[in-house]
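ok trying again, last paste got cut off:
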Amino acid sequence: MSTITAQKLSYPLGGDLIINRLGYGAMQLTGNGVFGEAADRENAKKVLQAAVEAGVNFIDTAEAYGPRLNETLIADALYPYKEGLVIATKGGFKRPGPNQWVPNGHPDFIRENIEGSLKRLKTDTIDLWQLHRIDPDVPVAESLGPVADAVAAGKIRYVGLSEVTIAQIEAAEKTVPIVSVQNLYNLGDRQWEAVVDYTAKRGMAFIPWFPLASGPQALAGKISDIARAHQATVAQIALAWLLQRSPNILLIPGTSSLNHLAENMKAAEITLSEAEFAALSR
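nice, full thing came through this time. structure:
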């Protein structure tokens, strides 16, 4: 576990894309089971627009969200894109139905995902394309072959991975440079501690998915006390802890509520004391 870090609120993704570390994850702007259209599409567009107006310049989506409908929603809400806005997407999952996620790393499927994302997002270049999952039935070099081709063609700027070990990161790098890793990580689930520290040392971004979990019941009292001390919500403290955990962490909390969006954005204003950070890190 790293010690508390100075809270810098931007990060140079890939070394040159300056990202505000409090971004937005668009997965919740879909139907039940991350399948189908958002229940209120016009509200979903307003949430995306409000996020950008509030200073978000990093939005995370995926071909699998909807599937495909989430990318189209983002383009409908935000195109033409504000200068400096980075939209990251992912590929490599088949979606037979709600809550069903089947890894598919076949090169033809990956190639199709990339081309489809370019069209749906109305862009010539995807700033960050991430392999949503490594398919256990397909060598990662084969899955990433079309990705490397797309990088060479200027269709993808940077490449990331999701839910991977250090060994898998290093294996993937034999085919294409990796600038980010998106793994499950929050106050309550820290199985990827070693990957957080590894990516920080390597100059890669670490993007926790499900960042708003506030930890196990054993932390409930501590986090509530800290939230009261800062006149903040438990969710804000959970995000503030992540921002202080490591300077390479980029946050993508998602919500379909304008009020919750505003609440999440205020987490960047909270700085935990050394003692508070340590209490939550145990």
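cool. The chain has a mean pLDDT of 95. The CA atoms of residues 141 and 173 lie 9 Å apart.
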